[in-house]
Amino acid sequence: MGAELLDPAEASPDDIVLSWEGREIVAVRLPRLADSLDNILTGLERRHGMPLAELDRRAKQEVVRGLEARGAFSVRHGVETVAAALGVSRFTVYNYLNRENASREG
Fold first, then answer.
1. Confidence category of residue 99, pLDDT binned at 50, 70, 90
2. 43 and 92 assigned to the same domain
3. pLDDT given at position 29
4. What is the domain range of residue 63?
5. Are 77 and 99 within one domain?
6. What is the pLDDT of residues 13-71, one digit of tens each?
7. Are residues 51 and 93 in the same domain?
8. Those residues with Cβ within 8 angstroms of residue 26's Cβ, 6 or more apart along the chain or in another chain
């Protein structure tokens, strides 16, 4: 996920400090959500063995479905980032999302 481990003395208020038996051991700095989305997309490319833009339509729809489940579209510019990675328009990503939501409701 791209987290960074730090000495607890270097922790900022947004970091998570982990303790063991009352002693601070390590601080964890989580990446910004936008950076996490980039890491997720890179991982998906590795898993598929090719750039996401080269996937067929069905595979792209599955990628969008998985990304939605992981909250990728709650990130600012998430739809744009995913659309660029998939080599499709934002409109297409919204269509994939709408189709998925319609199939769940119907």
1. confident
2. yes
3. 85
4. 33-105
5. yes
6. 888 899 999 999 999 987 666 567 888 899 999 999 999 999 999 999 999 999 998 88
7. yes
8. 5, 6, 7, 8, 17, 18
Residues 42, 26 share a domain:
no
Residue 74, pLDDT > 60, answer yes
Q: Do residue 25 and residue 53 come from a single domain?
A: no
Residue 31, pLDDT score: 65
Residues 1 and 31: their CA atoms lie apart, in Å, by 8
Q: What are phi and psi of 34, to 5 degrees?
A: -65, -40
68 and 99 fall within a common domain: yes
Q: What are the structure tokens assigned to 24, written together?
A: 């601070």
Question: Hey, what are 88's tokens?
Answer: 């499709």
Longest CA–CA span in the chain (Å) reads 53
Report how far Cα 15 is from the mean position of its chain's Cα atoms: 19
Count of domains forming the chain = 2
Q: What is the pLDDT of residue 33?
A: 60
